[in-house]
Amino acid sequence: MTLTFDVRRQHPELVGPARQTPRETKRLSDIDDQDGLRKHIPFVLFYRRGAAAADPARVVRHALGEALVPYYPLAGRLREVEGRKLVVDCTGEGVLFVEADAGVRLAELEAAGLTPPFPCMDQLLFDVDGSDGVLTCPLLLIQVTRLLCGGFVFALRLNHTMCDAAGIVQFMSAVGELARGLPAPTVTPVWSRELLNARSPPRPSFSHNEYDPVPPTPFPPPGDMVTRTFTFVPADIAAIKKGGGKATTTFEALAALIWRARTAALKIPAGEDARLAFPADVRRARGLGLPAGYYGNACVYPAAVADAGALRCGSLGDAAELVREAKKPLAAAAEYARSTADLLALRGRPLLALGNLFIVSDNRRAGFGGVDFGWGQPAYGGPAGAMFVLSFLVAVRSGDGEEEDAVAVPVVLPRAAMDRFASELKTMLAAVR
Questions:
Q1: 62 belongs to the catalytic site
Q2: Has 273 been annotated as catalytic?
Q3: How confident is the model at residue 433 (pLDDT cuts 50, 70, 90)?
Q4: Could you tell me the pTM of the whole model?
């Protein structure tokens, strides 16, 4: 039975920087403003009751205003200039903030399963009218919902062109530090978006099959879609890694498993290409020069491409080897990032190749589990859901311990395909145990 509850919201308000900030225009990077990132993405964190009796909405709202002083571009608005280039006007208008109360306890949410799909998520992160545009709209929507038990839910929707997962975690951590009474964030934010601009002249040095100009595969009807999270405990992960072959990483093993099972579940015909892309963070790439505190998008999207029939009929080890091969350009990550920016500029910021595309984003080390507003670490912190073409790897606890030793993977598929997907996973796991 699905858990339902009431959520009472106060009127949305704009929270701007607590003090005067520069009024200027800043250009986004050529990685930031690609078409595939021109969307809003939701995250959610669930917190238990704290020792203090403070109101989490009041605490977070105050700290948010303080954090927007050093992070003042997030309080601005995006617009396009020549060639659809995105810039942010640092107007100080603020981010949207919603305060709410829910008639539910965290224990009830945990009993229902604290992984996507979350009960009443559309009420825990309410879509304020007129707030979901890419241009001229608030760049962040934040909702703090108090729970009956004294815990709360912190939900955030982000204009993806401004930050990736690591970047928004850096900002949320700054809000948390200020909420806990620190005088300033321990990490100073740095803009420096010009470091991920195309060279002059642009000169791509890799083929970048992730942006191949192939016809997109039609999406199934939204009304037929279901979301289900599959959780892999340490014993599962060890078996899957063993099945993936020697020296297979957790990411390679799980990405290969999910990709292969999804390809079979969707019955992608033999002779058609199946594509797996994955964001790879290049913040620490030697020679790229991104400074500590960089909070823009710093991911590239290498891709594996295989005949769908061969992928279905091959072994888990074969699929894992395709993922490893796709990762090889990351040995020259700085050059791969520059080449990506060059290609995006030359080709007018194309979307990723959408022909039978599946994206797996590894959020296990993004840092959501460490965001502390003064109530300790969240019971869950990470993406609020998934999409038909996008799943996440999220670190979760497999039991009552403190260690996040399991991996949750939310998947979105048509209902019939989801049943086949679950069956494929069961068969593949039995084969490697």
A1: no
A2: no
A3: confident
A4: 0.96
